[in-house]
Amino acid sequence: MHYISATDVGKTYQSPSGPVPAVAGATFSAAEGEFISLLGPSGCGKSTLLMMLAGLEQPTRGSFHLAGHEVNGPRRETGIIFQDATLLPWKSVLENVMFPIQILKLPEKDYIDRANELLNRVGLSNFTAKRPHELSGGMRQRVAICRALIHDPNILLMDEPFSALDAITRDQMNVVLSELLERYRKTVIFVTHSIREAVYLSDRVLVMGGKPSSIILDLTIPFNRPRQFDIEETAEFGALCRELRLTIERAHHG
Ligand SMILES: Nc1ncnc2c1ncn2[C@@H]1O[C@H](COP(=O)(O)OP(=O)(O)O)[C@@H](O)[C@H]1O
Ligand SMILES: [Mg+2]
Question: Quick one: fold of 1-74+187-254?
């Protein structure tokens, strides 16, 4: 069952210096509950593909379908997380998590327990009254994840959410996200340029590359869930990383 499908999707931006082809003819699908990474070097069109899937950019060719409906604008069943947590500085952690409920004009009393439960699951139950400036970068990104999940969207779109964090915090965030998704199963499209992060988190990794850019590899990651972080030390993990790295290198030089 294809929960998400992209059919021959392309995007060419118009700029003052002429057309900029960002994505050309990307075709892929995702089953409900699958975790898919889009992996590739900077500039290969990952964000463009994700923003089209979110309904925030229009494709110049092809189309996306979510649960049988063509995407032609932002949808409520989609939660989005960016590299920067973009929290409201004057609101508390709890108020930031509740903010989408206010925007969507849903009854706050129906969601407050969920907000507290989410914050508890990411280890922030003692920080609910703090302001964003009192938190570390990793903590702020945990709040952003809770905010994206508060209205219980089916689909989570994440654009390099951990790229601004230091390596140790990033590893911790991978574990936090993985555990959170064991509890709240979502269909996830996760953009990253980290090969290890993609392999640890994903059911499938789609590599983007080429000129013009498209999907050049669709690699299944066969590890069972829940996953322990020490799978990163296995030979099988290393072999998957190597295959992805070679594919990216070939696309870059070939
Ligand atoms: N609004 C825009 N106008 C013109 N060109 C753009 C715009 N957004 C992105 N691009 C170009 O499209 C290509 C893909 O960008 P992007 O999707 O941001 O890649 P990535 O997320 O993989 O780094 C790049 O060459 C970038 O310069
Ligand atoms: Mg990007």
Answer: Rossmann fold (3.40.50)
